[in-house]
Amino acid sequence: MNALQVDQVSFSFGDKVALDQVSFGIETGRLNALLGPNGAGKSTLIALFSRLYRLQQGDIRVGGVSLRRQPRQALRQLGVVFQQSTLDLDLSVHQNLAYHAALHGLSARAAAPLIEQELMRQSLLAHQHQRVRELNGGHRRRVEIARALLHQPSILLLDEASAGLDPASRLALNQHIRTLCAEQRITVVWTTHLMDEIALNDPVVVLHGGRVLAASSAEGIIAKTGHTNLNDAFRYMTQTAGASA
Ligand SMILES: Nc1ncnc2c1ncn2[C@@H]1O[C@H](COP(=O)(O)OP(=O)(O)OP(=O)(O)O)[C@@H](O)[C@H]1O
Description:
InterPro entries: AAA+_ATPase (IPR003593), ABC_transporter-like_ATP-bd (IPR003439), ABC_transporter_ATP-binding (IPR050763), ABC_transprt_ATP-bd_su_PQQ (IPR022467), P-loop_NTPase (IPR027417). This is ABC transporter ATP-binding protein. By secondary structure, the chain is an alpha/beta fold. The protein has 2 domains: 4-77 and 154-244, Rossmann fold, CATH 3.40.50; 85-152, no CATH class. Helices cover 38% and strands 25% of the residues. The protein contains 8 helices and 10 strands. The strands form 2 sheets. It has a 6-stranded mixed sheet, with helices on both faces. A 4-stranded antiparallel sheet has the order 2-1-4-5. Strand 9 (203-208) and strand 10 form a beta hairpin. Helix 4 (108-121) packs across helix 5. The protein starts with a strand and ends with a helix. 37% of the residues are buried. The site of adenosine-5'-triphosphate has 11 residues, from strand 2 and helix 1.
């Protein structure tokens, strides 16, 4: 069973169609790339997954549980890092996590071991008493990831997580997420418009103009289009879709 299953999801902002009959599955324990240019519909999908927006048409199943019918049970399995950071820059790393835990009704005693575990998993123990403002962009992202994983979800949604990072930090974050997948069996949805963040055997969903153009491994997509790299394959697919729209 797929960790996440999107079935015939359509979504509009007034007259503007953002997602049009979108269906795909997300593989368990892998980094799944959601690849698309600006305006493709990636953030709208993340907002639907996390129930920031309500489903208009179709359904999303999280570990087999319908987001439409059993939203609480489905949401429990998801951790989300949104494009815009919501960390409090003047609180320490630890305080940010403790505040989040308290907001979600966890007692300080229950939260302490969870915070400790996440600080360890994200290699942030040494930074826990630093104010977030003092951290570099890569470490700030890790704090957000730690926060998203505090309630021990099995699926982590990352919306353009590497945006704004320098190339070395981008690569380090991508590697870090891959380690989380491999060692902790966490399922990751990684939205991006950058091909170099995608490995050949990653499951990829190509989204363009609110539609799914392809969903298979990166190498499968490359082979299917007859190109030699994902960049060219992607350009070919989006130009063809643009021409036939
Ligand atoms: N609040 C909104 N009101 C009206 N239209 C919107 C709104 N949010 C998004 N859209 C439109 O919906 C479409 C999908 O946008 P979305 O933000 O999901 O794309 P994206 O792939 O995440 O792009 P980006 O990388 O720029 O965030 C775009 O055409 C966008 O202009």
